[in-house]
From TrEMBL:
Signal sequence coordinates: 1-19
Family that this chain belongs to: Belongs to the GMC oxidoreductase family.
Superkingdom of origin organism: Eukaryota
Keywords: FAD, Flavoprotein, Signal
Binding residues for FAD: 264
Protein name (record): GMC oxidoreductase
Origin species: Ascobolus immersus RN42
Length: 605
């Protein structure tokens, strides 16, 4: 952040909006108003977008409360070539999982952004969307308004797309569908100028296997092979994220306030005659904030269920364990936890292209924004449908459907949550049996393949360990607890081997180092995968959007069941994880949430 800009936003003079004196956008407790139209808990990927968009209406005032700071343009955040380095720093909640008993007893780090912009400042800058079937599946679970065609305008509203230069597009065969992109949104999407052609033989090998390159994954065809942009500002060649795209414009508006370095402790509510609750204020250390209209919780897949549970909204057995009065019995809060576990298969190429990396990479980036530091990672993807990966897909899905819904869920799971999982079984099996939903993602890196299971059948949990919001909750991915996940991964490994057996890949003289050719039986491959499995940082689904009788926490308008003025809008409301890197999906949820809020705005007047 430039010093002159920081000075400006810290000391903007008061203005008058709706007859209320609004002080500096970046406020202290003393400058806070008596009440706001909307209070947003969490200034991460979704929360800062919601707050900023609401403030575009001059007759609305909004307060965003964020647990972390506004970063100062830190190099580890803004430089594409340094992706991943911000994890484990002060900008990360530093969560850790429980021991993964079905995945070789490992504890796994669970990164979560603790700064304005949240995970959009930590992620790998992948800016793709799921296939249409990924979101149509949400609608299949009882969520009208969430089919791909219905949410596409919100994807486009978020995006500011820049096509690649003609020469680059022709050399790499980068294709795109202009009708699927937005050109005036808050977040830049573009292709890095620095690319290597290391994946060319991989693309050719897959094409020889009958796998086509799609025109554009953004148009609902995020299957087979396709190019996708990064969240990259093509002019500055820096990360485009929640701070730059949403916070900066909002900070110029007098009806936008933000409290940073402020951890919300609890939602204070009253019980109404009909048994519902109304949130009266948002409590944090040293103060509280009141919303005249609504409170929106956008604290992420870990933070949002934690806050609801501490506030008395959640499964009653858990709340009673901590002597928390049950305000709303919602067993689904903290259930349904999903992620994209990923693994790596390593090869040595005896006849492969030489690895080259400019020794002056830093100088190239500092002087003219070129070279390896100008790129964050892969932009070419293969999300393959299950029937493409294996002829056994139908047998595996039938075996999955034959499971009792509660067979592999945590012991004592509430019947409504079990019913929701049963509904998800049917929806997932239907779509995975088609050739329109990606089952596994394969990313080629020269020295091997990173593969990620896109629709895991296991379900994890997030549960409070204390009534103190500063105590990490119990985070359990429950990786590989459903054996059907291992069936998919075994077939995915076998498919990788078939790809390397093509003449095109064989010409590179590959040697499989890990797991190694001797690891051949299904059991041996599965054991290898259990030792490799880790997070792709796509935590979601812990406050699922589906009917209450199916263990849902929010309805299709993101309203928390049993409340009158509380919504959740972030990755936690996703009912079924989509086959994609989830950044742009979370932005889409935020953009749609704003429209849902504004639809109801008039009823409060």
């Amino acid at each position: 952040m430039h010093t002159t800009f920081a000075t400006t936003y810290l000391f903007l003079s008061a203005a008058l909006v709706n007859g209320l004196a609004i002080g500096p956008r970046y406020i202290t407790e003393r400058q806070k108003l008596d009440s706001y139209d909307y209070v947003v808990v969490g200034g991460g990927t979704a929360g800062i977008a919601i707050g900023a968009r609401l403030s575009e209406r001059p007759n609305i005032n909004v307060l965003v409360i964020e647990a972390g700071p506004v970063d100062a343009g830190d190099d580890i955040i803004t430089t594409p070539g340094k992706v991943g380095q911000v994890m484990g720093t002060k900008f990360d909640w530093l969560f850790k999982s429980e021991v993964q008993t079905a995945a070789n007893g490992r504890v796994i780090n669970v990164p979560a952004g603790k700064l304005v912009g949240g995970a959009s400042a930590l992620n790998g800058m992948c800016f793709d969307r799921g296939a249409a079937a990924d979101y149509d599946a949400w609608a299949d679970l009882g969520n009208p308004g969430w089919t791909f065609d219905e949410i596409l305008p919100y994807f486009k509203r978020n995006e500011k797309f820049t096509p690649p230069p003609k020469e680059q597009a022709e050399f790499y065969n980068i294709t795109w569908d202009p009708s699927a992109h937005g050109f005036d949104g808050a977040i830049h999407s573009s292709y890095p100028s620095y690319m290597t052609d290391v994946a060319r033989p991989w693309r050719q090998a897959l094409n020889s296997m009958g796998i086509p390159q799609e025109l554009d994954g953004h148009n609902g065809r995020a299957i087979n092979m396709f190019w996708a942009p990064n969240s990259l500002d093509p002019v500055n060649v820096t990360r485009s994220y929640g701070k730059t795209g949403y916070y900066f414009p909002a900070s110029k508006r007098s009806n936008f306030h933000i409290l940073t370095d402020t951890v919300v402790q609890k939602l204070i509510h009253k019980t109404n005659v009909d048994g519902s609750i109304t949130v009266e204020s948002v409590q944090y250390k040293g103060g509280s904030a009141t919303a005249k209209r609504e409170v929106i919780v956008s604290a992420g897949a870990i933070g949002s269920p934690r806050l609801l549970q501490i506030s008395g909204i959640g499964p009653s057995p858990l709340l009673k364990k901590f002597n928390i009065p049950v305000a709303v019995e919602l067993p689904g809060v903290g259930s349904n936890y999903q992620d994209h576990p990923f693994e790596s298969v390593r090869y040595t190429l005896r006849n492969g292209p030489p690895a080259t990396f400019p020794v002056d990479a830093e100088r190239l980036y500092r002087t003219n924004k070129t070279g390896p530091w100008s790129a964050s990672g892969p932009t070419f993807y293969a999300f393959l449908p299950f029937p493409t990966i294996t002829s056994k897909y139908r047998a595996i899905l039938d075996k999955y459907l034959a499971q009792k819904p509660d067979a592999y869920l945590p012991a004592g799971t509430d019947p409504t949550v079990v019913a929701g999982y049963a509904a998800q079984q049917k929806v997932l099996a239907k779509h995975l049996a088609s050739d329109l939903m990606g089952a596994t993602e394969f990313i080629y890196g020269g020295s091997g393949i990173t593969l990620s299971h896109q629709h895991e059948f296991s379900r994890g949990t997030v549960q409070i360990a204390s009534t103190d919001v500063n105590v990490q909750p119990i985070i359990d991915f429950r990786y590989a607890t459903n054996p059907a996940d291992l069936d998919v991964l075994v077939e995915s490994i076998r498919w990788i081997r078939s790809a390397y057996a093509t003449p095109i890949m064989q010409a590179l003289q590959p040697i499989e180092n890990s797991p190694g050719a001797s690891v051949e039986t299904d059991e041996a491959i599965a054991n290898f995968m259990k030792g490799q499995m880790t997070t792709m940082y796509h935590s979601c689904c812990t406050n699922p959007m589906q009917p209450r009788e199916l263990g849902g926490v929010v309805d299709s308008k993101l309203r928390v069941f049993g409340t009158t003025n509380l919504r959740v809008a972030d990755a936690s409301v996703i009912p079924l994880i989509p086959g994609t890197h989830i950044q742009s999906t979370v932005y889409m949820i935020a953009e749609k949430a704003v429209d849902l809020l504004l639809e109801d705005f008039a009823k409060f007047d």
